[in-house]
What we know:
Number of domains: 3
CATH superfamily of the largest domain: Periplasmic binding protein-like II
Radius of gyration: 24 Å
Strand order of the largest sheet: 4-3-5-14-6
Order of helices and strands: HHHEEHEHEHEEEHEEEEHEHEEH
Largest sheet: 5 strands, mixed
Helix content: 40-55%
Shape: elongated
Structural class: alpha/beta
Number of helices: 10
CATH class of the largest domain: Alpha Beta
Distance between the termini: 56 Å
CATH topology of the largest domain: D-Maltodextrin-Binding Protein, domain 2
Amino acid sequence: MDRLTALRGFVLVADLKSFAEAARRLRVSATAVSRAVAQLEEELGVTLLSRTTRFVGLTPEGGAYLERCRRVLDDLDEADRFVRGQGSEPRGTLVVTAPTVFGRMHIVPVVNRLMRAHSGLRVHLSLSDRVVRLVEEGIDVAVRIGDLSDSALHAIRIAETRRVLVASPGYLANRGRPSDAGQLDRHDLIVFDTLAPNNEWRFTEAGRPFIRCEPRLFTDNVDAAIEAALHGIGIARLLSYQVQDHIREGRLSYVLEALEPPPAAVSLVFQESRRRTANVAAFVTACEVYCEGRTFA
């Protein structure tokens, strides 16, 4: 069995958890698939699949290798479709990552529309507030909010959102409402780490004034920051779309609105080499259509 077929066999075994079913799909014997995967493991020097008489599962190394194999196979399939004149139809796997709340509110609807429109498309959607490494983690497109530090990646701005300070009415009634940035050091602060580089809150485009935060709560989870603000723990800096419902219902109030910095960009980020692939192009277009005329304030 050649290397390419062996990779397809490994991916099928991992997905189907069965050598026999993978062999049936490939129209070869189960023994041939087993030997091909064993040869892959020998060449790599790692165990990809853990096997028992009743179960086939991925090892940690196998899980990491699987995602890269999917990318390789999808790229080859994309190239085949292109030369056959089928390059415009999204097929195979699209890997997308987005911030937790924005992804839940706005990327999930885009993904659902794409999958309804293209029956051959599979999507791996990861919702996380950490900044992922696209190449190393096999990501096709990342939704990022704010400054883009990786100049090697291509970015398309699709929207913008505001960075706001909020607190519960109960907290403000108890502790008072600050009238300028300097008064924030007298308050309990909730810091969501992606919005506080170097533990600083900066205001205005020039970055002045700014305060160095000594948070009462520091978290890398936006839901935890919102929940703490709702329970009167302190003043939090969040993105406007994350708290718009709580503001509208009166559960949270804006603080120091006059000092809001310029809006933060919402961008789609991807490798330039993937810009013209059918999957990425379809996702970018769908996001642009979805965001047109919308405000995330």
